[in-house]
Amino acid sequence: MNAPFSIKTCTGLLIAAAVLIPSLAIAQTTAPKYEVDLTWPKQLPDRWVLGGLGGVCIDNQDHVLILNRQDVLEGDLNSGHMAPPIIEFDPAGNVVRFWGDLNILDPRLHSCTFDKDNNVWIGSAPSGMVQKYSHDGSKLLQQIGKKGVFDSSDGTAKGKPLNSNAAQFYMPSSIFVDPHNGDIYVADGEGRGVNRRIAVMDRAGKFLRQWQPEGMESVHCMSMSRDGMVYVCNREASRIQVYDKMGKLLKTIEVPWKPHTPPADGKPKETGGSAVALDFSRDPGQKFIYLINQNSSQIEIIDRQSGKRLSHFGRPGRFPGQFDQAHGIAVDSQGNVYVAENRGKKIQKFKIVAP
Predict the structure, then answer these.
(1) Rounded to an integer, what distance in angstroms lies between the CA atom of residue 271 and that of residue 295?
(2) Domains by residue range for the chain, with CATH
(3) Less Cβ around it within 10 Å: N or C end of the chain?
(4) Number of C-beta neighbours around residue 16 at 10 A
(5) pLDDT digits (tens, 9 = 90+) for 294-308
């Protein structure tokens, strides 16, 4: 027979609960702290030289895929070899696979994502192509759009903007595949003043619908949370706009910023936008948004439900833990954050610091 609770025992439990409950509340409203992992990745093989990195994505085994644009200085190859377009790392930072045929891929790779079957989808901004590959890159399984329809090699937009009901793109910048029905969401319009839409196709690539996010000069990033909300980066207006799957605006998350050094004329200078690329934490409720802020050269950690900025890490520079035009971001199942840099030409891993 169990002994009855004494008053002393009950009092002790109440005190313990009083201590525990505030601790839980703090844990739920505090973002993790991060530091750069200097051991990741391991040294690249065969004296590889990276160009700008267009994007990064993570598969269901926490393998990290980076998109190498190969835009290296010619002199850099005097003492090295061009790194392949697509490079896959295991969680320890070892290169486990590399691939990419530039007769099929566009050299200016922009973003990637894995679907629920672990196939990889790649968006190539200048070419207007969205491609689906087998996980190892050995098979091109699907392509929406045609390589060479548009040419932006001289920095101008050529060709007619495709603001019509068409499964053809101008400059696709982000992709997400709905795990429930296979619908393909594409942020189309990385080039300012053109398209500026979210286009949705079915799993076969047939056009379903589109919408133009309000107040955007370009649609640079897009992803979908597990509860079916579509998050779109408004990089010029310093905000994230959240929609349902049909394009109804649900809420706006402001991402204000200010320069640390006040400009002489009092007008802050945009250096890329404060909402450039995002990913979510991997917990069931996806509590945190991790957002690249190019204006501040840092990663913002935002509470997804309230939109409150909780913390940040990073600063401008070329040293470890610093960013030179961060362009792609991805979060693994352990909460590690991977940031790909375009001008900085490197991939960095940030790990959670134990409290």
Answers:
(1) 5
(2) 32-352 (2.120.10.30)
(3) N
(4) 10
(5) 999 999 999 999 999
